[in-house]
Amino acid sequence: MIRYDLICDNAHEFEGWFGSAEDFDRQKERALVGCPSCGSPRVTKRLMAPSVSTARKKEEQRHAVMNAHNQEVIDKLRELVTTIKANAEDVGERFPEEARKIHYGEAEQRGLIGKATAEEARELIEEGVEIAPLPVLPDDNN
User: Which of 49, 86, 116, 118 keeps 20 to 30 A from 30, CA to CA?
Assistant: First the structure.
């Protein structure tokens, strides 16, 4: 399909869709193309800027798709973090100590969130304590 911007002899502007350039010419010859405003069969094609797909347009489209996808992922992560926080006890700076107590059976099993330094986290992992950092997402005030 090809779209043409058209104009009649009374300066009414409109668009028309045709199967090909030849299809437009055939319909015009048979007076099948007419102005929807005044009915005039004297219709011509207007000059149109071609819609060219440039590398820049493709890059802009790719960024738009990626931004939408990234936002969807961030929204899902935000929902996950909210669920984790709602179902865990925040023990703050006591996190390494409390995590060890649970791991070694000295405290009841429960979800924990809190703070640990990189060194404390490394030590917990080396001991076999299962931990994972919560992501800090854009616009979070954590």
Answer: 49
